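Aim 2 progress. For Bifunctional protein GlmU, the working sequence is reproduced below.
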Amino acid sequence: MKVSIILAAGEGTRMKSKTPKVLHEILGAPMLKYVIDSSKRSDVEKICVIIGHKADEIKNYFQDEDVLFRVQPMGEDEPYGTGFAVKQAVGDFDDNDTVVVLNGDTPLIREQTLDGFLQFHEQGHFSCTILTADLKDPTGYGRIVRDDDAKIVKIVEQKDASEKEKLIREINSGIFAFNGGDLKRALESLDTDNAQGELYLTDVVKILVSEKKKIGGFKLRDKREILGVNNREHLSNCTEIMKERVNKKFMENGVTLIDPNNTYIEPSVEIGFDTIIYPGAIIQGNTTIGENCKIYGTTRIIDSEIKDNIVIDNTLIEESIIGSNTKVGPYAHIRPNSNIGENAKVGNFVEIKNSNFGNGSKASHLAYIGDADVGENVNIGCGVIFVNYDGKNKFRTTVSNNAFIGSNSNLVAPVEVEEYGYVAAGSTITKNVKEGQLSIERSIQKNIDGWVEKKNLK
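Predicted structure tokens for this construct:
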């Protein structure tokens, strides 16, 4: 069996945050989730996450994930360190298992890399394999020390390295593969005789070397995969790399991104062929976008379903459905639980909330449609307000097929306008409008002669 141990117990003080470091988000998901997902998509069969700082918060977030959690003791008398963290999972793997140790703050590691790494480890019959990389500036990383035959003899941490060792450019990524039995025995031999007074997982390598075990080194091709997150700048750097990956995948699958550097799409999103997305778009969560859509400007779409052949212009859409061949925007707001039909139009500065808006219906500008069921081929005029709230409770309005709501009208819920019902402009409707009726509700117009002169306004 292949077992993944993910180290996620650190406090992350350099993040300067009340949020646990591994819960800081990259493209809408905690960085720890990327590591878990890469493990799941690889050949790993069991995942164990080591947590400590704000352990309950992390467990609650991932309660639906098929992973094991082991809590690292955080008392003053505990030795801490990566070796101490891995010891918390010794009961989760057997002697014949292959164990890969990952870090919860290195979200860019790919499943393809993990599979190649584990295959190299097992085919080489290594006791331990280290994922390494050559860096121009290795400052801060542990160095890989090799003998004259290029065999790895130890890993030395930056703080414990001699001046000569600090010149080594091959670094330890912090990702290891072990034979389960060898790892268990070596962990029992760890001590805190180092600058930090911690149990180093890297000292396991030294122990295995002393036992004449075979140590392998697997060099990364894309060094960015081992970039860790220790502060907000690192978080931003990893986000930019992940965004590049995600956008590239969409473009490879037939989506046009006019300016990928200025387009934010989360990896959970699905987009169909021939859709064109212009700069400034933000597409988040469990959003699906169909084929041949055009998304312009600073549009933001969250957890929504966008069908085919839709044009969206500078619009906010939240948790809603937009039917095919519909045009939305510019500057519209589709609030949660709204269902916009096919061949519809939701125009400038129109807000729709918790409503059904039927096929072929139009609200071209400056309207609020809240808690409503609007049928097909309905025209909503400029300035129409669906008055849904009496200060305590909200009520629904029904406007049936082929109705016409004139400009600057108020529909005071609960109220119904039946099929082919017409509401004259400027009316405030408080009673139902029957089929085919014209409803007018206006006070009598009164024109006062000479009023301007009397008020000395001329």
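The chain has two domains: 2-226, 249-439. This observation will guide construct design in the next reporting period.
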